[in-house]
Amino acid sequence: MKRLKRQRRLTVITDVLIVLVLAVVFSVIFIPEKITPIYGGEKNNPIYNGNKDYKNVSLMFNVYENTEVVNGILDVLKVHGAKATFFVGGCWADDNSDTLKRILSEGHELGNHGYFHKDHKQLPYEKNREEIYLTDLIVKALCGAKMTLFAPPSGSFSFDTLNSAYELGYKVIMWSKDTIDWRDSDENKIFTRATQNLSNGDLVLMHPKEHTLKTLPKILEFYKDAGFSVVTVSENVKDI
């Protein structure tokens, strides 16, 4: 049994290395040195809110750590019949294929959060594209998912970010509510930030933190009592 587990682990590592090598080759050969700016068109503007015509709300989990907490969040979402979008970092995803598969199998959505959590506003076009594309390839190789949503780390982006995301078939997703749970561990603050002045189409930013997990059932109960459906980001932003 231990030998089989080691063999599986080696197979996954080999697959990821192959993907990375191919991605580097692709970036050298196919990424243009310069492109014409396309920012400003409706198709590649960042999205800050879902469709206001429907009483939906979306939870967005940006994931670079705490796999056990991610699985705890999945447990809570399952109990409450809620769906969420997990924006995963490539360097986390390549070690957590089982969790990626679980996210998909339980009806949730995977989004792209770049590979190394870099400040995309400071990156040139080529590096913006590389961060997004490497994560795209790795997630696809590990669980077969084709992601279409990109959340820039820390919400930092530039024209080059928007252009490279658009060229790779991604919508850039921001948020309308930020729980700031990466900084504050006060469960009451997190609850208030996730629920105060709730409106149609809200996109609520969260992270896999223990305190977020603890207050998540209360947040979901609030949404239900207020008559909101908790849906994936793709479901929330369609038709806008």
Give an overview in words.
Helix 1 runs antiparallel to helix 5, helix 5 (125-143) runs parallel beside helix 6 (159-167) and helix 7 runs parallel beside helix 8 (210-225). The chain has 240 residues and is α/β, with parallel strands linked by helices. It has helices at residues 2-30, 67-80, 90-93, 97-105, 125-143, 159-167, 187-195, 210-225, 233-237, and strands at 56-63, 85-88, 109-112, 149-150, 171-172, 177-178, 202-206, 229-230.
Q: Key terms for this structure?
A:
240 residues; alpha/beta; six-stranded parallel sheet; two-stranded parallel sheet; 12% strand; globular
- DSSP strand content: 5-15%
Find the structural class using helix and strand composition.
Answer: alpha/beta
Radius of gyration from the alpha-carbon trace, in angstroms = 18 Å
Order of helices and strands: HEHEHHEHEHEEHEHEH
Percent of residues in helices: 40-55%
Tell me the total number of β-strands. Answer: 8
Number of helices: 9
What are the low-pLDDT stretches, counting only 5+ consecutive residues below 50? 24-40
Mean pLDDT metric: 88
From the spread of the alpha carbons, the general shape counts as: globular
Main beta sheet, described? 6 strands, parallel
Distance between the termini: 50 Å
